[in-house]
Amino acid sequence: MIALRAVDVKTNFKDVCAKAFGGEVILISRPKNQNVVLLSEAEYNELSKSAYLAKLERSVEETKQGRTVTKTLEELRAME
């Protein structure tokens, strides 16, 4: 991970984007700890996919353990 100040990112945006596209994760430090992270779309997609799969695995485990909630169609409509 590379940490940069926002002003440095602004000055060298093209180079910073090239680093992110090359696989580096860029931490952009901002005032009051309002930091952001810049990463490639491919890396973001992998992280999103991993998070989704983790949720799916958790749901499967809960189902296997019988931790489910059953509702009728009428109950679901009443929740709208």
Search tags:
80 residues; alpha+beta; 3-stranded mixed beta sheet; 4 helices; 3 strands; 56% helix; elongated
Largest sheet: 3 strands, mixed
Computed over alpha carbons, the radius of gyration is 21 Å
Q: Number of DSSP helices?
A: 4
| Poorly predicted segments | none
Mean pLDDT across residues: 95
Would you list the SSEs in sequence order as H and E? EHHEEHH
* Strands ordered across the widest β-sheet: 1-2-3
What is the terminal separation in angstroms? 44 Å
Secondary structure tally: strands: 3
Indicate the proportion of strand residues.
5-15%
Tell me the helix content.
55-70%
Oligomer kind: single chain
Shape: elongated
* Coarse structural class: alpha+beta
3D structure, described in words:
By secondary structure, the protein is of the alpha+beta class. 56% of the residues lie in helices and 14% in strands. The chain has a 3-stranded mixed beta sheet with strand order 1-2-3.
In short:
This protein has helices at 6-11, 13-21, 41-64, 73-78; strands at residues 2-5, 26-29, 36-38.
Write the layout of secondary structure elements.
Blueprint: E1 2-5, H1 6-11, H2 13-21, E2 26-29, E3 36-38, H3 41-64, H4 73-78
Parallel strand pairs: 1-2
Antiparallel strand pairs: 2-3
